[in-house]
Amino acid sequence: MAWEPIIIIEPEHLGLHQTVMEQLLAQHKTIATAESCTGGSLAAWITTLPGASQVFECGVVTYANRIKTKLLGVKPQTLEQQGAVSYDTCAQMALGLEKLSGADCNVAITGIAGPDGGTPEKPVGTVYIGLACEGKVWVVKYQLSPAGQDREQVQALARINALHMVSAYLSGEETSSFAAYREE
């Protein structure tokens, strides 16, 4: 089955953090997060589970661009030329997190949760999710703002899709629909 983004929250998505934790435990792997538009809520969601300390290395909230550069090594020219919400910024966040954390699965999220801040090129709900795992990096661009969704819904969809990507990777599902990143 081909991997598909989640754009509507269904009841089965609410336990995805448990599923991912079980996959990580079974494979003796760890996870770390670097978040911007979700403000640390992915890390918080993971750590609501008993035993999270066995798989969770760290969570970094890098809301400001200078912190993305200082902590995660995002190139200033990437931020200047493409902005904080871009494919390359997200990939560099994931790579920087991988270096910082040493975790097996490193998830980066950057986007525009709204209700303000969108542009015609990057409307509210534009979210990039990056995954750096064991030397490989993928980034997927999402549009997570169907009519009527607010900031919290965009953030929730970003969290769910991030763990959906991790679960797909850990399950050995086809990742060819993820855009592989190559650093220049």
Automatic annotation (TrEMBL):
InterPro entries: CinA-like_C, CinA_C. Residues 16-169 form the CinA C-terminal domain. Pfam families: CinA. This is CinA family protein. The lineage of its organism: Bacteria, Bacillati, Bacillota, Clostridia, Eubacteriales.
